[in-house]
UniProtKB/TrEMBL annotation:
It comes from Spirosoma telluris. The keyword Translocase does not apply. The active site is at K8, D132. The lineage of its organism: Bacteria, Pseudomonadati, Bacteroidota, Cytophagia, Cytophagales. ATP binds at P90, I91, G92, A93, G94, L95, G96, G97, G98, S99, A100. This is 4-diphosphocytidyl-2-C-methyl-D-erythritol kinase. Keywords: ATP-binding, Isoprene biosynthesis, Kinase, Nucleotide-binding, Transferase. GO terms for molecular function: 4-(cytidine 5'-diphospho)-2-C-methyl-D-erythritol kinase activity; ATP binding. Catalyzes the phosphorylation of the position 2 hydroxy group of 4-diphosphocytidyl-2C-methyl-D-erythritol. The keyword Kinase applies. The gene is ispE. One of its GO terms (biological process) is isopentenyl diphosphate biosynthetic process, methylerythritol 4-phosphate pathway. It catalyses: 4-CDP-2-C-methyl-D-erythritol + ATP = 4-CDP-2-C-methyl-D-erythritol 2-phosphate + ADP + H(+).
């Protein structure tokens, strides 16, 4: 079976408090974007995992795809499979690409081997693999709370808008990004801010990671400004970076100054 694990952007990201378990509670809207990897899983005589495309740091036993398979195998009599991942989405980019791969492995195994797992059971497995992994089980716009793995409905529909993602070849560790943040409770919830028209978001919808990462990596605010200069209705860093995105009313000619970066553009 072949599937196409995609990625997400964060429409706003407020980090509200540090939890006793060391993680942080947050408010964010995760929104799916079509930039994706290619994942093939087929039955085989023995288990194997291979990858092509972008090089994934670490050995394959630590790949989230393998972890997802092993997690399910601990509870079900799964046959061996041959798994191949063609990696396209940049790594450590704030796009949740690795989490998407893991979630799609769970969904693919559930479908192929008729495990009968419900959406909520799949989300429980995904939560064990990473904070933003559970989102990719439903893979639709959701308002995310707590560690980013508790969901509620939000009516944000960006159909008809165009998005440009700029990855400036800069790997930012999620753990390091969280360690630099000072959590605080916002006066107005992100939920309320996102209900207002998109042309208000520039002044209201904020990614808290920008406060500590923009001074350290000046390329990031520079890209954000260039996206606004190119006509973006809203621009922001995604997650813990380093991808910066702009949302536009219509397709644009991506400015030349981004030619050394990895760029993806498409319809939302
Ligand atoms: C920041 C966000 C925002 O959407 O996305 P990315 O930028 O990574 O895509 C997510 O919270 C990333 O989720 P994910 O990448 O799954 O993180 P995990 O593997 O669970 O955790 C990596 C590390 O980040 C920190 N962490 C993560 C999530 C959270 N709510 N609080 C935290 O403090 C912890 O130090 C943890 O050890
Ligand atoms: N299949 C995978 N794809 C990407 N990264 C993976 C994968 N499996 C494990 N990882 C590890 O996860 C981390 C980055 O995860 P990723 O989801 O790409 O970043 P981010 O959460 O910033 O978008 C890296 O340390 C990487 O080695």
């Amino acid at each position: 079976m072949i599937t196409f694990p995609s990625c997400k952007i964060n429409l706003g990201l407020r980090i509200t408090e540090k939890r006793p378990d060391g993680f942080h509670n947050l408010q964010s809207c995760f929104y799916p974007v079509g930039w994706g990897d290619i994942l093939e899983i087929i039955p085989a005589n023995e288990f194997s995992f291979g990858s092509s495309g972008l090089v994934i740091p670490g050995d394959s036993q630590h790949n989230l795809c393998v972890k997802a398979y092993n997690l399910v195998k601990a509870d079900f009599d799964l046959p061996p499979v041959q798994m191949h991942l063609h990696k396209v989405v940049p790594i450590g980019a704030g796009l949740g690409g690795g989490s998407a791969d893991a979630a799609f492995v769970l969904k693919s195994l559930n479908g192929q081997f008729e495990l009968g797992l419900s959406v909520s059971q799949l989300e429980d497995y995904a939560r064990m693999l990473g904070s933003d992994c559970a989102f990719f089980i439903q893979n639709r716009p959701l308002y995310c709370l707590e560690k980013g793995d508790v969901f509620s409905e939000i009516s944000v529909d960006l159909k008809g808008y165009y998005i440009v993602l700029i990855y400036p070849n800069l790997v930012i560790s999620t753990a390091e990004a969280y360690a630099r943040v000072r959590p605080c409770q916002p006066e107005t919830t992100l939920f309320e801010q996102l209900q207002r028209p998109m042309d208000t978001w520039r002044d209201t919808v904020h990614n808290d990671f920008e406060d500590s990462l923009f001074p350290k990596y000046p390329v990031l605010p520079h890209i954000k400004q260039q996206l606004y200069d190119a006509g973006a209705v809203y621009a922001s860093m995604s997650g813990s970076g380093s991808t910066v995105y702009g949302i536009f009313n219509a397709p644009i000619v991506v400015p030349n100054q981004f030619s050394t970066y990895r760029v993806w553009e498409g319809e939302l």
